[in-house]
Amino acid sequence: MTDLNIEKFNPTVSELKALVEDSKDLSIKDYKDDEGLLIIKEHRLKLRDARTTITKTGKELRSEAVSFQKAVIAKEKELLEIITPREDELKLIEDTASLELQREKRLIGLPDKKEKLLKIGVEVEDNILLDMDSSQFDSFLNEKTFEHNEKKAEEIRIKEEEISKKEREQELITKAREEEKERIENEKKVEESKKIIEENELKENTEYVEWLKDNGYTEETKDTFKIVSSSEVVHLYKLVNTYNK
């Protein structure tokens, strides 16, 4: 296996610090002659060489790291392929067994849950209810209760609208009947007024009064007579007799 060691970097930290320290007194004034320029160059080249060595080492270590990473991934996959299938099988067995155990425990509360649902008109298969834990059932019950209440509220609203509509229709019918009754009464009053006027006019008619007298109609006998008049003729009817049963 590749030996990954961060200490492979060369030169070391202390050596690099020493190189920097050796050149700290050099400045622009050292360029005044060839000898000074050469000294500066020598120090720069030492630093350059150290830099290139560091870069080369880093590249080599990264390459080794990538190869090592690939080898680790391959080995990891190889090892996991040995145990993962069996782990998955056991997980399935465990989950199935756990679910069956939970379902058996939930059988105790099943009748109560079904009764709560039936109160809001909901029927659910036992298997579905047994698959729900307490939290899931409460959420399901709340959702169905909300839907039930919404439905009831809508039914009440529709019923109230129907009642209101019938009441309005009944009000219209009652009003129409009252108006018709009033119309008939008004017409009757008009007819009675006309009749009174006609009778008054006839009473003022001497010929008509004499005609009534000639036929036996007087203030004393008028209750035994019935007068029916139209615009052209007056009919006089007389009660002939009565028979008591």
What does this structure look like?
- A hairpin with a 4-residue loop joins β1 and β2.
- Among the domains are: 6-106; 216-245, no CATH class.
- α1 packs antiparallel against α2.
- The protein is mainly α.
- The chain has a two-stranded antiparallel ribbon.
- The N and C termini lie far apart (139 Å).
- The protein is built from six helices and two strands.
Relevant terms:
single chain; 6 helices; 2 strands
Provide a quick synopsis of the model.
The chain is mainly alpha-helical and 245 residues long. The chain has helices at residues 13-22, 34-106, 110-118, 126-130, 134-203, 206-214, and strands at 225-229, 234-238.
Summarize the topology.
Elements: H1 13-22, H2 34-106, H3 110-118, H4 126-130, H5 134-203, H6 206-214, E1 225-229, E2 234-238
Antiparallel strand pairs: 1-2
Helix pairs in contact: 1-2
Q: Strand order within the widest sheet? A: 1-2
What multimeric state do the chains show?
A: single chain
Distance between the termini: 139 Å
User: How big is the Rg?
Assistant: 60 Å
- The number of helical runs is 6
Form type: elongated
The amount of helix comes to over 70%
Number of separate strands: 2
Main sheet: strands, sense, barrel = 2 strands, antiparallel
Mean pLDDT: 85
**Unreliable segments (pLDDT under 50, ≥5 consecutive)?**
none
Q: Percent of residues in beta strands?
A: under 5%
Helix and strand composition category:
mainly alpha
